[in-house]
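<goal> How does this chain fold?
<body> The protein record starts here
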Amino acid sequence: MTDTTASETPRTAPDNAPVVRRPRQGLPTPLLVGFALLAAVLLFVILEGRRQGAEAPAVTGGQVAMISAPPPLALPDYPQPPELLPAPFVEGPAAAPPSAPPPPPQVVYMPQPAPMGPPPSYEGPPAPPRAIGGGSVLVYDGAGGAAAAGSQGSDGDGAQQRGAGAAEASRVRAGVLANRGTTVVQGSLIPAVLETPLDSSRPGFSRAVVSRDVRGFDGSRILIPRGSRLIGEYRSEATQGQKRAFITWTRLIRPDGATIQLNSPSGDPLGRGGIKAKVNSHFFSRFGEAILQSVLDIGVNAAASATNSPVVILPGGTGTQRPQPTNIAPTLKVAQGTSISVFVARDLDFSGVERR
């Protein structure tokens, strides 16, 4: 009895048993497959319809408009030119055949013998250079004689002519300087000191003393000893703006009595042309009267405007102007004892006065 009652009573889960949710009931699988097939068919139909619509012609055959051919172009009728008849041919007398020109006369050319020219000249070998004292050799070129003669000029025009001659295409020969031990070559500087002052207001002479020994070209001998005297002359042709005095040294006298012509210009100790001088431009002599005239005019006008009284200007007073002497040349002055130099303008040969 007890066992039957216990078997008929339903079993209940204990309170501590876990609660498990049953799985959710979804659509059956055959139904899902059917929906997928239907969707595929619809998609195929839509895509096929679009493809056929794209391939259809845009314009149907009934809507095409045909253009008729244009009518033929009508050309105007031009009048036909009249036909030209051939000119009648009239047979005239036969013309005589032209006579042949006479043959030209035959010219026989006889060659003339060539004139006999002068026999060719043969130049002999040049003469050897002549030795001149001490084994030195001087070579002289006859073709360059004009250039050598032009080189002895000491004025400015001669220098310009020498420059123009050097620019010409000519041939010159090199030579050996003769008497090198007794020659002061061109371009040497002779240092000196002025013994006499210089004033360019009047032309005159000047004198200087050599302050240092000058040797020959090879330096073996003293050719111009210290204490030698220089004689020169200067002019008074100073121009406006000129600040250097020019002296032309004409003669050199040595202490032993030997003398030589120089004809060389002066320069400063560095060799620049001319001697630096003190310039007197005579400013007040040139413009003093004009300045005084201007001052008097200003004073008279100021006095007249201050007193309001008439001013009487007498003849020969401030109203007259005298011509100003504008041709006053400046005066150049060089003090005694100024250091100078002489620029040797040509070779100085002392071989005639030097003892062997």
